Fold:
Amino acid sequence: MLNAFRTGDGVPYADYGPDLHEGQARFTRPMFDSLLASEWLKAVPEVHERLLADPPARVADVACGEGRSTLAIARDRALLLGATLEVVRTNGLEVAYERVGEGPPLLLVHGAAADGRLWQPQLAALSDEFTVVAWDEPGAGRSSDVPGDFGLVDYANCRAALIEALALGPAHVAGLSWGGTVVQELYRHHRELVATLIRKLREADRMLAEGKAVGEVCRHLEVSEPTYHRWRTQFGGMKADDVKRLKELERENARLKRIVADQALNIDALEEVARGYW
Structure:
């Protein structure tokens, strides 16, 4: 530092060491995560258009904090492609969500310690076939904080209120990890709003009526027997009018599984880059 003061040459960035690099990354990450794709890049039309080109631009991240700006661009590509970030107020809370595309409704529910931005690859990949909505659950991301007594059923009720506010029910609902628990609770209390799980149980009823064994039914539905029996215990039998467009839902569900599985690889790749394994 003394030499830099004497010569006026400054201190080379590399000489600051890992503490400064990590500190800068933590300082800039909230801005990259929240503003880079949604506001800043759109304010520079030349850059914005180049990122949307086919093939897209290459991005060099220099001294911006452990590559966080590049990761934010890759993760938020759906926002660049036109997904809208909106907020609804329900149960005294503001719930943020992103919506993109047109078609059968698909709602994505993230896991614990994450928010709806986890689903950016899926928003981009599925928007040509579905109306895709990814929320920030209450207490996460850009949604309101929750009171201390906020429980699982409250998450499910907020999820139901969002579906109703957007007039999207019954919808396909996909949950990851903790999000899967929220989805099951949603169905337990608001089964009329959920399409895909109803389809699976109704299909099980049909196969059992045809004399198929439970094990064969579970293999067809691609669920374990304990999961199937838990659904039966929690949700009971389905009425015939619980399912509409059964054949269409079956085709959509198969297509969803293929596309989501492919896009999960993109999430793994981004996480590897974030850890420095590249």
The radius of gyration is 23 Å. The mean pLDDT is 77. DSSP finds twelve helices and five strands in the chain.
